[in-house]
Amino acid sequence: MFTALLDTCVLWPSLQRDVLLSLAAEGLYRPAWNSVILAELDYEQVAKLTRRGVARGDAGHRAAHLIEQMRQAFDDAEITGWEGLEGTYGLPDPDDEHVVAAAVVAGAGAIITLNTKDFPGTLLPFGLETLRPAEFAANTVSLDPHRALRAIGTIAGRTGTQGPARTVTELLDILVRRYGFDDAVDQLRSIQ
Fold it and tell me: Which of 39, 61, 115, 181 has its CA 20 to 30 A from that of 188?
């Protein structure tokens, strides 16, 4: 099964994270991350919730709960043993070395990130590429559009607990407007 390392920046927008992880839950790929990515996600979630008016303590509990849910749902996603490779790739930002190191140990074929410029292809090990989330979603949806649509339906079934309830069609519209998932959504609409 194809493995994709999910960078922090693609995990903290809630709907984008839900889509990427729901596609994985449908068995369309195996997600991977490391402890540093989860720590960064925890920090970003707390900051986002605090900006939205959630008390810092409650925001911390909610972020910790999210991380725990991710660990439980994808118990093989957290990669260990990458530390020895950190610092060996010569990336423009040394703070990104842990991402490539974890991807290599995971046997990932791609790093899913919004920061593709931070991972120049000439510095990545052979067979590892960077993809933006919209491009990755389109590739993943094309594997089995029916299972991908089921993943979106699962998300629609969960909405309304912390925000307004959404239909599948509304979620698809949001994915296009907010995240540029045009190609993936076009594939899903063709079978809807």
Answer: 115
Which tokens in the block code for residue 131?
């993809």
- The string of pLDDT tens digits covering residues 161-192 is 556 778 899 999 999 999 999 999 999 999 87
- Tokens standing for residue 56: 């810092």
Q: Supply the pTM of this predicted model.
A: 0.93
**So where are the chain's domains?**
3-191
Dmax (CA) for the chain in angstroms is 47
Residue 41, C-beta contacts closer than 8 angstroms, at least 6 positions apart:
8, 11, 12, 63, 66, 67
38, 56, 84, 86 from 17: Cα distances, Å: 13, 22, 28, 25
User: From edge to edge, which strands make up the β-sheet containing 78-79?
Assistant: 78-79, 30-34, 3-6, 110-112, 129-131
User: Collapsing DSSP states into helix, strand and coil, what is residue 88?
Assistant: coil
Tokens for 23? 């596609």
The per-type count for the chain, helices as H runs and strands as E runs, is 9, 5
Q: Does the domain made of 3-191 have the CATH classification 3.40.980.10? A: no
CA-wise closest residue to 118 among 128, 109, 130, 110: 130
Please list, in sequence order, all residues whose beta carbon lies within 8 angstroms of the beta carbon of residue 124, skipping any fewer than 6 positions away: 89, 100, 111, 130
